[in-house]
Structures
1.
Amino acid sequence: MASLSASPPGRAPASRWFNRRGVRRAFWQAVLALAVLAALAWLVGNVRQNLPRMGIQFGFDFLAQPAGFEVGENLIGFEPGQSIFRAYLAGMVNTIHVAVLGIILSTILAMLLALARLSPNWLLSRLAWAYVELFRNTPLLLQLLFLHITFAQVLPAPRLAWSPLPGVFLSNRGFMLPSLVVEPAHIWAAAAFGLGLVGTWWLQRRARRIQEATGIRPATGWGTAALLAGLPVAVFVAGGAPFALDLPVLGGFNFRGGHTMSPEFASILFGLVFYSAAFMAETMRAGILGVRRGQIDAAQSLGLGRLLTLRLVVMPQAMRIIVPPLTSQYLSLTKSSSLAVAVGYPDLMRVYTVVSADTGRPIECIAVVVAVYLTLSLLTALLMNAYNRRIALVER
Amino acid sequence: MTILAPVSPLGWPARAGRWVWRNLFGGVANTAVTLLILWLLVESVPGMVRWLVVDALWAPATAEQCLQGAGACWAFLQAKYRLILFGPYPYEEQWRPALAMLLFFAMVAATCFPHAFRLAARPRRLLGGWFATVALIAWLLRGGASLEPVEVRLWGGLPLTLILSVVGAFCAFWLAILLALGRRSAMPVVRWLSVAYIELIRGVPLIGLLFMAIVLFPLIVPPGVDVDKLARAQIAFILFFAAYMAEAIRGGLQAIPAGQYEAAAALGLGYWRTMRLVVLPQALRVVIPALVNIFIGAFKDTSLVLIIAMFDLLGSANAAKSDSTWWGLYVEAYLFVASIYLVFCALMSAYSQRLERRLGAGRG
Amino acid sequence: MLKKFCMTAVVALLAGGFALSAQAASTLETVKQRGKLKCVVAEGSVAIAQLNDKGRWEGFDVDYCRALAAAILGSGEAVEFVPMGFAQSMPAVRAGEAEVAARAITWTMSRDTELGFDFVGPTLYSGYGFMVHKRAGVTDLKGLNGAAICVLAGTVIDSQIADYFRPRGMTFTPVVVDNVTNMYAQYEAGRCDVVTSEPPFLAARRSRLRAPGDHIILSELFYKSHMGPVVRDNDPQFSGIARWAHYALVTAEEMGITQANVDEMMKSKDPAVRRFLGVEGNLGSKMGLTDDFPAKIIKAVGNYGEVWERNFGMASPLKLPRGINALERDGGLQWAPNWR
């Protein structure tokens, strides 16, 4: 209990200089920093000693060397003979491709699941519950391996492909989907939609300003509808309304035309979506249930309808509960996409294993991977934090 | 009249009928959904039962018969279940990990339901029990002293999964407390280091860390130092989960009102005593459910050691399917393993929810 | 004071770290001291390295590990198997975590020279051929344009196919499969049009497909892939031991020495056999082994032919013919230098 009688620092003459709070803190921080530096120096020293002993070179020059391997499917058209850097790039683009599609699809699936869980229909909510429990409580890797075998072996050969919808074929060679033949009119219509978005934003701002000035909010419904739906449709029709689908057709060894999704891509994408959606659904459900009953009662006693209550009272509050955990679920989905290595989809991690075996540069190879994932994670976190700050501002 | 009678005068069939009516057939959309789901169940369930039970093949069946057959090949699982459960652990000694797991489960049950075992008021006895059990388990698994010694690299299957997750979570917990305190420290160097560590680890996928543990480890230690694969994977798991647990614990620390710190300071407690006696006991209580969830995640994530060629539960299921005697069969092995994970995780999350409710009630 | 103490501790720690790094003994000494050979094997690859129902390692490469262990330590059980994925196996050997990696690694120039390994054998010779469904109406390699070809993950086959196809203006889609079992399952399911492997393997696998008559094996070979275990190339003594352990297996088959008759053969009058089994001469001890190390190998795993039969041949579920891996005198490629 000596500290009980200690006088406040700086006042008592008995207090020595090294007992001052600031000095002690500085000392311990210096010790910690030195210890960390020493540990790092020790590790680097070991590496410097080990590398020559094992005959391993160090340096990032290998990134410019031609790659002697295939990456497989990729969006940037990588071929053997191009630089290893480009192979990494192909892997990174694939990782981002899976992550972005996975985030979009799992969010949609999670919303449906959350609604089903909250549905008054007992069977539907039990079914959604069973889904969530099953997918949350088994390892993602197990689900991936299972999906991969199913997609790659159990589905029939192209000749006997299963066609659940016209133009859609599921076979063990991948999922064949019809793709739109893009013509200028489509691009114009998309541009018109973008213009409509800007117009809507302007309209809403004006409406809010008028409301703040006069207390009366002008009706914006029709204007919004005209801008968002009318304008693109009008442009599309003016462009001749071209609508041609490129349908997959069986020919030779495989399907031609349309869009093909390989079983490897399908298994990592759907594996991630099925698994992550189970977690996200629970987050969303908790968010919606987290809005107090009184808030809804209050909104309804103000005369707001069901939709307006949902839009103006429930959703803003639910979003504030949902977004932080959802952010970390998006991040973990992005990182889990590295399990593509187990199903043979050439993501960044898979390219790493190939490059590492091919070049014999263990440290540099993994350094590239770590740098890319860190950047991706930090970027996602920044984006989501910005969004979080925006919706949190509503709270005042 | 009805207002006066709290119990419905209707008999149970009528009440059940009303429940069904209200929950399944109220409204057109509701009815449509119910009918759709019922149709799906009628379409899928009989087929599954046929595959699982009616057409299933048992022990004397060979791989060829199984591949021709229309049902599950339980014969494959009968030949392989011990390999899946215990990995490459010597066959004749597999009673030892089995016994070790039983001991472990018994201790877990005693810890989770102390009232049922009359241990609630005797935490010391419980702690002693754990020390004894851990020592006993270590002896059973490693051998020595009248038991055949078994090297660590031969451990596999469910015991390996349990070791990786339990030891990993236990060690990560202490590291996480330090990191969480560090992140809220007033000393900038301590804070920066903690933040850097946590964000660095959380930014990298677990599999990347495991690759590092396997490929980079021999490069960063002095020549001649040899650490087995289990220990390396274990270290990777500890470092990984500590970052996530630290964030959960930080949430608990933030929930402690400033008055608690001030009261502790007024009593003259130093930093460590304030934390140990006042802040942490309250903060940890709040975050127990979050920590249990992280542990469930850890339990499932240990399956990633498959990618670095270790035979945990999933890894040995994978090894079971690449035996030339049985090639072509895999579904049964995966189903077996999946149901083990499912039972464990579902039990843990049910317990976590119970805890959450109890803690929530206690707080009010 | 405290600061000084900490600094001293740090310096001591650093010094300790470097003190540990005394130059390691030769590979052979390391193995003998440990009493176990560390051998990298595949984590589960049919007939190459697999765990049986009782969790014991079996397979062609596993038997090589046992043979080498028997040569050095006298017992086929003195092996510590280190299961590893393909990508981690070679770095592990180079980092000294194992003495040898036996997981059907293809012998390439860059691995042998630039990456610093020595290859043993080849213990398995293979050339690659294609099997394709008759329906496709393909008779030669040119007909494979546009096909989906199943290849094994982690091998160099896909880039070899690419090297063959690209100059001829042909394309293909590689379907990467993680193990041999899946590869044939996927081929049969139609996941790929063509499966590529060594012709004898293709023939054996074809016999287990549902309709063997529907598939043809193209007579053209396009690529050779000779496989063997790898060791570090900085210890010539150990490289020699690793090579001669394999040659002992082949020589034993040439001399007709088997696991069953090896004790009998020790009493043989034939000077070549006596020299081989170490009854005469001191060839073994000059290498740092015992003179009778070939006898110990044969007792542990049998000769090359026996190892083949047990894992790939008629005594195995695969029922593969010997093909080009037969002895030289039987028209194959397996031979050993003279034992003197």
Note: Chain B touches chain C at residues 63, 79-80, 82-83, 86-91, 151, 153-154, 156, 211, 214-215, 218-219, 222-226, 229, 307-311, 315-316, 318-325, 327-328 (CB under 8 Å).
2.
Amino acid sequence: MTIEAINEQLLRAIGVGVALLDLDDLSFSFRNDTFNEWFGEPSSATRLNDIFPDLDTGTLRQEMNGSGRMSTEASFKLRRRTMTVALEFNLAQNAQDNIAVLVCQNITRIKELESMIDSYSMMVERNTHEIKREKEQVEKLLLNMMPRAAYEEYKTFGVVSPRLFEPVSVLALDFIEFDSQFTQHEAGVIVSELSDIYSAFDRIGAQFSCQRIRTHGDSYVAVSGVPDPNEDHAAAIANSGVRFLRYLERRNDSHPIKWKARIGVATGPVIGSVVGNQNYIYDVFGPTVAAALHHRDQAAKMTMATDQAFADLVAGRFDGAPSSDGSHVLIRDMAASA
Amino acid sequence: MEKTLFDKYGGFSTVSKVVLTLYDRLLEDDDVGPFFDDVDLPRLIDHQTKFVSSLMGGPASFTDDHIERAHRGMQIEDHQFDRLKEIVAEVLTDFDVEDPDIAAILGEFEARRALLIETPNDN
């Protein structure tokens, strides 16, 4: 077997499609087995555009006359499979005739992999986005249940250690005749009213650096000085309490359901911590909380009751008048008492 | 949390090979292959990637409604569904997925047969 014959046999057998293209009429003078496998058995009438209808032959001729080479890609169907080949045209060197060597590399798998990676990364991106959104929702929920500092501690260490905060002020509020409101109105209406009122309290409290700690039915407890210290904690709580009552008065003027609240406030130390390891609740404890609750029970409707210690802290800014029986002090803003 | 089959069998590295093998076999198969005759490559690969990922508990999840809509009007018959199940089982076996896991995957698959096969009254 001659070297030429061996060369031709090799050329026929390789997994790359090879053809010789007559640039004058764009017919094929040679096609190897792989090329025929992909594009069908040769016929003398077959032209380049019959196989690659999207190929711009004008550009091809221009490139052959210029640089003598051109690269492009083409897709075709082989049975059901979409095949993609990288085409490389090279003007034959030292040839008498105007001939180009066409080499076709099968890049189908690469295209399939590219498509798969695209598809997969879009899935992962969407999932990542969803996870991020869920994480933000969880964070938002947890921040509703505990102060940010406690949340950060929980996130880092998995627990929140009980901490003493001192001095702080605590406000406890509830509604007079709350049970009868329930019997007079639908439960859904009452819940919606409470949600509206508590949201307003939260907004007012936030203006004075007070944080709602918990609500339980008609009981609303807020604190100032937890977890961030607040030198003016008593005034913050007194300001919030006065405005809570003022808000309710104005609201009652325009709403069919009239809410009458009573407020107790106290100052002193509290312990703040997350309670429970399954159902997390951030809460504050201690005699100061108990005192606020006690003063709330002493308060008449639409008043704020406390003891002398708290009244002394806000003296000059709020009016503190002893109750008739001397058991507690009533806090009002100066303008109202004038 | 229980490990998904997706994680158990090597994540995307394995799933990518399963997808391409499944893709090859589906196209070669004369029962199910014709369904993909006129589907372009990116869409088909996208379909297979999501299909395999969701079967193995990877980052793809489809509601039954989504699956039903995607196959509406394709006139898939029971024997073609059965053939697809066989091909999936063969490919998973080739990738050394354990028998109980293959059974679980095929069980999930079987549970959605009615979504893919339209009864004459559906239209």
Note: Residues 19 and 48 of chain B are 6 Å apart (CA to CA).
